[in-house]
Every structure is written in structure tokens, then in C-alpha cells.
Amino acid sequence: MLIAESGSTKTDWVLVKNGVVYKRYKTMGYNPFFHNETIIYNSIKQDRKMQSISNQVDYVYFYGAGCSSNELNAIVEKALQRVFTKASILVDHDLLACALATYQGEPAISCILGTGSNSCLFDGENLIEQVPALGYILGDEGSGSYYGKKLISDYLYNKLPEEIKTQFNTTFGISKAEIFDNVYMKPHANVYLASFMRFISSFSEHEYVDQMVKTGMKHFMSNHVCCFDNYSNMKVHFIGSMSFVFEKQLRFSANELNIPVGKIIKQPIDNLVNYHIKYYSNN
């Protein structure tokens, strides 16, 4: 079986044979909000490593950002079926992957903080999404695109601390016109905005970044954790690069809101694979 966990930036794939991890692969991220069937199919088909195993796969379990309805899931499913012609295909939301990867036998809140952000409550059987994910324009609080947007707007408004502004100019040397072109004219603006996170994390100890991240984390938790009844009496797990890199700021903000932090995992794929090996080891 082939298990995939996809955000908007990248997809982690793991091939399992006889209950053992056999090979790992990486491709671009596939989000049916931004990628149609043809784009997804061509991307995978042109990957030699993925193509080499296409006839070896009997089951594909794909969990992805944007896979939140039957219509959207069908876009990804059709693309995968064209590549893995002999396989049974299951496509579901990345929130379910997050929940399965963090589940410890009791109800808990699971959160995604990566290129985008989202949350759910999972009791082992039922997944409850209390409030919707609004995407990078209206929401995605605490995510890479959220912080990238804040950095860029502060740069254009000339509000960055001088040392960060100087390094920004040295590193990127981009104009307002180039930024506008990437944000408003080209596809995948969310990924473009999140691409500034490597730069932002290099100043993680700077007061400007520290406060920006704490504010974003608190904004996310206020909207996506505190919306659940009894949130302060159950574990709240976090998955994604933002939660991993900025664990200190995450814990600070959680403490202010009386949120008990559970697991913090950079990438859910290994836990997700272990879950499937445990329950689907015959595939």
C-alpha cells in the first residue's frame, strides 16, 4: 500500500510492503483548490520514481489539504487512478491524517500549522470540525502563509526593524512589483508567502519575530481551539513545521489561553504510516 500526506507545499509518500516501510518519496503538494486533475496526474506521471512503482500498488491512502468534499476529493482520486491503475484509491482530508497521527485512545483536539492551518476534534471514530478553514486570504492564522503575509506587508509599509529589513533586501532583493506579481497574478500565492518562513525562522530570537509568532499562535488558538467545548480539559496536539520550529512561542501562547499541549510533531507521515500498518497491514 502507498500512503500519502499532502499539504499545499509538498507531499510525503511511503510505500509499505508486508507491513514494513519499503520506500519513501516526495513530490510537490497537491491541493484540489489550486490543482486540477491534469496537473496532479502530469506531476506524478513525470516523476520517474513514482512511475516505477505505479504497477506495484494495490491500495493508495491519500490525505490532503483541500480534500474536504466529495467533489474536491474526486479531482485527486481521478488523477491517482490514472497513475495507479491497479489500485483502490481512498482520498480524505489532511485533518483526518492529523487526527490519526496524534490519536492516543482518548478524545483530543488536533491542529495543523503548516503552509495553512486548521483544527478538529477526534474521538477515535468521529471527526468534528467546529469552525471552517478560511484559506490564506481570510484565515490560516498561525501558518506559514500567515506569517509570510505579515512579513511582506510590514516590509512594504516600511515597518520592519532595520536589521531585518537590511537582511531581507540582501537575501531577496525584490521589488513591490515582483511581490504583487507573485501574490496577485501568479498561482499558488499561499505557497509563495509561506516560502519566506526560512528567512523568518532565522530571526526566531528577535523580538519582532517572537512577538509576531506569539500573536499568530494566539490568534489561531482563539479561533480554532477555544471554539471547542471543554478544550481546556483535553489534550491539544499540533502537527506541522510552524508548531515544531516555533514550539517555544506555541507553548507560551497556549499557556496564556489555558490550553494543555499534547504532541508536537513536525511531519505526521510516520505516525500515519504506523496507524495504517497496525490496522491495514494486509494491504
Explain what you see.
There is one protein chain. The chain is an alpha/beta fold. The chain has a domain at 2-97 and 269-280: Nucleotidyltransferase, domain 5, CATH 3.30.420. It contains 14 helices and 10 strands. The strands form 2 sheets. Strands 3-2-1-4-5 form a 5-stranded mixed sheet, with helices on both faces. Strands 8-7-6-9-10 form a 5-stranded mixed sheet, with helices on both faces. A hairpin with a 3-residue loop joins strand 6 (108-113) and strand 7 (117-122). The chain is globular, with a radius of gyration of 19 Å.
Range of helix content: 40-55%
Strand order in space, largest sheet: 3-2-1-4-5
Q: What average pLDDT do the residues reach?
A: 90
Report the end-to-end length measured between terminal Cα atoms.
6 Å
Radius of gyration: 19 Å
The CATH architecture of the domain at 2-97 and 269-280 comes to 2-Layer Sandwich
**Largest sheet data:** 5 strands, mixed
Q: What is the N-to-C succession of helices and strands?
A: EEEHHEHEHEEEHHHHHHHEHHEH
In what range is the share of β-strand residues?
Answer: 15-25%
CATH fold call of the domain at 2-97 and 269-280: Nucleotidyltransferase, domain 5
User: How many DSSP helices?
Assistant: 14
Q: What is the CATH C level class of the domain at 2-97 and 269-280, in words?
A: Alpha Beta
What ranges have pLDDT less than 50 throughout 5 or more consecutive residues? none
Q: Shape from CA axes?
A: globular
Query: Which secondary-structure class do the elements indicate?
Result: alpha/beta
CATH superfamily of the domain at 2-97 and 269-280: ATPase, nucleotide binding domain
Number of strands: 10
